[in-house]
Amino acid sequence: MALYVLLGFSAGLPFFMFSTILGLRLQAHEVGLVVIGFFAWVQLLPTFKFAWAPLLDRYDIPGFSRFWGKRRGWIMLSQLGILTSMIAMALTASDESLPVTALFAVLLAFWTTTLEVAADAWRIELAPTREEQGPITAANLWGYRSAMVAAGSGALLIADRSGWTASYLAIAAAAFVPLPILIAMRPDPGHGGGRWTALATGLLASAAILLGALLLTAAVGWVVLGIAEQIGISAQTNVTPYVLVICMVPFLIMAAAVPRIRKLPPDSAVRQSAALGPYVDFFWRYGFGALVLMAFVSIYRMGDVLALNLSKPMIKELGYSLTQIGRADSLVALIASMIGVGLGGWMVIRWRQGFTLAIGAFFAALGNFGFVWLAHQPPNEALLYIATAADQFGNGLAGAVFVVYLSLLVNPRYPGAQYAFLSGFAFLLPRLLSGAGGAIVEALDKAGHNGFDIFFLISGVASLAAIPFLPLLARIKPRPDDMT
């Protein structure tokens, strides 16, 4: 339990630094709201973690894994990636080159996500039942959400006094703390050898892997930006229609593939494949019910994700300072979030799954509606605390019950890959739409409406839209596993 508080803390620290904090940093450097919205697409990277999650199940990190085991080996590499990426973001905190800012934000998102994949796989292996999942999930989310609160509030308070470079360096130092603790831990069962030899080998291998990831990301980014320029995408482009079309593509592909997948025998090449087998297995077990499951998971956290990227810029426009926002995101948000997580972890053990999911959706929606209420009040720090507490409580409660629900959909044969696929897909549609959020708000403002008001009303309703799915979910049962 203590270990998973630690792992949650380690994964939660960087998240705000490439999402909410980065949005406020760009706003401070007078970057337009539409471009700030585009930067929300950095958060799409965790959505596609299923693309590299099988690598974490199949391969070891040289040195680290020999002594500390596969899962901790990947966790240690990821922490080094988080540290170096955040230092790079600190050294480029002037945002004079937005492509460079995006490069290091993407790398930070990649290594943060890789850490989560490794930790999630280990969690499912350690606690395969619902009774075991509730407490360990709550512990993990306590660490995760308290780290997000610490990063969010601490980064803003430091930035208001000492600048953005100092802010990112301070959070980088905090993110580094768990690594020495992991190094000092006992070897993984079945592993061993020299601790310091394994550490030295692991550090050399990590340096090579980190450099390779940097070069590959820079090359892909250069190509993507070049294509965007060629087809005319800019800050003036209305990207919303394109985003909505893209959102439909995964569902069309899945619907076309399910009939063939259901007929595959256990010895078929695609079901035996290390790269595709885990994902094919999910659709083989659930059939067309998988489409309903995927639609539900893509909607359940919609409101939280849509609010994440634009809530702080909206609050800043209302006249609150970075210090006031930081204070609201400190103790107030931490207490509200941890109460929500704890209550969610308690509920999944004692109450029916559908009921707990419905309660989570309701309180998540309430948190979004709180921002609309705040926008119509005169600036008052106490009111900011109330809105922040409502948002964090709802996020914590919904997050806890949702993590357990996703974990129970997973085949224990493929814990890392399938959980990565489900949790990643859950945020694909919300994060695609979130990237268009700035454009949506500006379009509503130009039409004579209050863009932020309508945007947060929509985000709250989106959370409630998951509730009608619950009776259908109760009828969906997986096919028995036929692989030995």
TrEMBL record:
<keyword id="KW-0472">Membrane</keyword>
<keyword id="KW-0813">Transport</keyword>
<feature type="transmembrane region" description="Helical">
    <location>
        <begin position="100"/>
        <end position="122"/>
    </location>
</feature>
<feature type="transmembrane region" description="Helical">
    <location>
        <begin position="203"/>
        <end position="227"/>
    </location>
</feature>
<feature type="transmembrane region" description="Helical">
    <location>
        <begin position="31"/>
        <end position="53"/>
    </location>
</feature>
<protein>
    <submittedName>
        <fullName>Permease</fullName>
    </submittedName>
</protein>
<feature type="transmembrane region" description="Helical">
    <location>
        <begin position="239"/>
        <end position="258"/>
    </location>
</feature>
<feature type="transmembrane region" description="Helical">
    <location>
        <begin position="331"/>
        <end position="349"/>
    </location>
</feature>
<feature type="transmembrane region" description="Helical">
    <location>
        <begin position="166"/>
        <end position="183"/>
    </location>
</feature>
<dbReference type="InterPro" id="IPR004752">
    <property type="entry name" value="AmpG_permease/AT-1"/>
</dbReference>
<feature type="transmembrane region" description="Helical">
    <location>
        <begin position="355"/>
        <end position="375"/>
    </location>
</feature>
<dbReference type="InterPro" id="IPR036259">
    <property type="entry name" value="MFS_trans_sf"/>
</dbReference>
<feature type="transmembrane region" description="Helical">
    <location>
        <begin position="420"/>
        <end position="442"/>
    </location>
</feature>
<feature type="transmembrane region" description="Helical">
    <location>
        <begin position="286"/>
        <end position="310"/>
    </location>
</feature>
<feature type="transmembrane region" description="Helical">
    <location>
        <begin position="73"/>
        <end position="93"/>
    </location>
</feature>
<feature type="transmembrane region" description="Helical">
    <location>
        <begin position="382"/>
        <end position="408"/>
    </location>
</feature>
<feature type="transmembrane region" description="Helical">
    <location>
        <begin position="6"/>
        <end position="24"/>
    </location>
</feature>
<keyword id="KW-0812">Transmembrane</keyword>
<feature type="transmembrane region" description="Helical">
    <location>
        <begin position="454"/>
        <end position="474"/>
    </location>
</feature>
<keyword id="KW-1133">Transmembrane helix</keyword>
